[in-house]
Amino acid sequence: MSVATSPIATPAPPAGRKTRRQVMERVRLIILQIVMTAVLLTFLAPTLWMVSSSLKSRPEVFAVPVVWIPAQPQWGNYAEALQMLPFARFALNTFTICIVTVLGVVLSSSMVAYSFARLRWPGRDFFFTLLLGTMMLPEIITLIPMFIEFKWLGWTQPGNVLGFYPRNFLPLTVPYWLALAPLYVFLMRQFFKGIPIELEEAALVDGASRLRILFNIVLPLSKPVIATVAVFAFLQSYNDFLQPLIYLNSRSNWTLALGLRALNDVQMTGRWELLFAASTAVLIPILLVFVVAQRYFVQGIATTGFGGR
Amino acid sequence: MAATTAPAQPQLRPQRRMSFHRREWLQGYLFAAPFLIGFTAFVAFPMLFSVWLMFQKWDLLSPATFVGFKNIQRALTDELALKSLANSAIYTFVAVPFQLVISFSLALALTQPIKLRSLYRAGFYLPIIIPVVATAVVWQRVFHPDFGILNTALGWFGIPPQAWLLKPELAKPAFIFMSFWMIGRQMVIFIAGLGNIPASLLEAAQIDGASKLRTIFNITIPLMTPLIFYNMIIAIINSFQTFVPSLIMTDGGPENSTLFVVLNIYRNGFQFFNMGYASALAWELFIIVIGLTIVQFYGSNRWVYYES
């Protein structure tokens, strides 16, 4: 130990110095805890304000100073807000799009990822590079040509396909069935690479088809990455605003995000408590997903950056 | 496995291998088919199509007409286009450094052994999962001159209320401030990286009597430069593309001070139906973003530390 340079290095006996250091460390952690609590509360303030205001009576919303806990929670705000526009319909639309998206992402990404991870075919590395390149591609560059393309395909027309699925949902969901979510393919490929190949070789010798190997051996072992990808895809689809804005023309096809925006536009000055109630209601499903699957969120982000822990 | 049967049938082996290979090729293409089709239909074709569009004047109603370099020229000289580029550039270059400092500091603090650590992490991550429309709705009111909580909080420090989103000189700072709220993703990546720093290095520094602060600056930060670089690249790409908050909160105003590039593209494409001009603007943005990324990669040799 270089006693000379240490600021705590007093002639005290080693044992005493150790406890002193421990005390300093404790004090440091307590201060840090207090500081972080304050910072956290600052960060949470807008969200807490939103939730608390959603339960306020009208005078409380505009009270100065801010009322944080409403005297009497106005649960009726939620019913009133969600009846101003057909939010039940929006919720149904949103969940339909989300579920179709998640299914498409998981199925197509796992197949493509398996091909990139395990099968050898000419051009594979080239296409994998293209896939990585697509990850960096700004959404905006394909926005306009894709709109025209979907228009040609007739997917911007009103009506349903198969009798029940709104045609306008096709531009929002079909690309995901074609593995156009390169990040998810990448995540799955990395995970598949980590699965011992011996299991698959044994199955191959037994004459199992590749499809069977993927569904009966690889995917059951890949639950963590499937969960991560599913949660990400759900979140992305649920929170998306730009694509629905462009493709969902008729109000009966709107998602929750579009409904909330419409409510905001008509309610610019008026009744904040209703807007906050609608915002909170839109947040609740995603919050539930977050609480249940927080582990996968964090894992996913950590691995997206660099190899994970 | 196969090797044991090989000596018995020496002639069969190469043939079998060929067919096996060919089958694997076929399976490879079949399994990758969704991506190969998707990439062709929804990435490659739109990009080429977009190049063609750049040279057309087309409102989707009347037939497209060839206009040469007019759209490109306009994208490079139009006052609004330049203004939107400047807005996005200012937003990006002011917001990103702060974002990195904030997310890195939070990550450092939240890797210390404080109590309820994972709950704190979740709290800082929460804003990321809030739907962007809800975020915009709430922040529009956070910035409200009379009833917003930002002015209330500033009032505690004796700062008079400001009309954040209503004044051209304050609207951009307001959006920059709002972006600090959404740094959860960067923070999580930093936390993961900090967990990978070998404890032996930090212990060695401690034994040598280095202070906490010195350890951070001389060991932690140099080792984290690859992740700082990664977060910086992603943050710059994303910041250049933000526009939904401004679409909802200010619709580009006041006086176009929050007219970001993508909002300008969106307007030209989907409100004015100038498909050709909008494509030219999109390519302009694309080239700027790619150019910035390349420049950063070149510059990274100077400050990013790579092991071995």
Low-confidence stretches of chain B: 1-12
Structural class of chain A: mainly alpha
Q: Please outline the major beta sheet of chain B.
A: 2 strands, antiparallel
Oligomer state of the chains in this structure: heterodimer
Query: How much β-strand is present in the residues of chain A?
Result: under 5%
Given this structure, which CATH class of the largest domain in chain B is correct? Mainly Alpha
SSE pattern of chain B: HHEEHHHHHHHHHHHH
Estimate what percentage of residues of chain B fall within beta strands.
under 5%
Net shape of chain B: globular
User: What fold name stands as the CATH topology of the largest domain in chain A?
Assistant: MetI-like fold
Measured distance between first and last alpha carbons of chain B: 39 Å
Note the total helix count of chain B. 14
Spatial strand arrangement across the major sheet of chain A: 1-2
Share of helix of chain A, binned: over 70%
Name the largest protein-protein interface in this structure: A-B, 98 and 96 residues
Strand order of the largest sheet of chain B: 1-2
Overall mean confidence score, pLDDT of chain A: 87
The CATH architecture term of the largest domain in chain A is Orthogonal Bundle
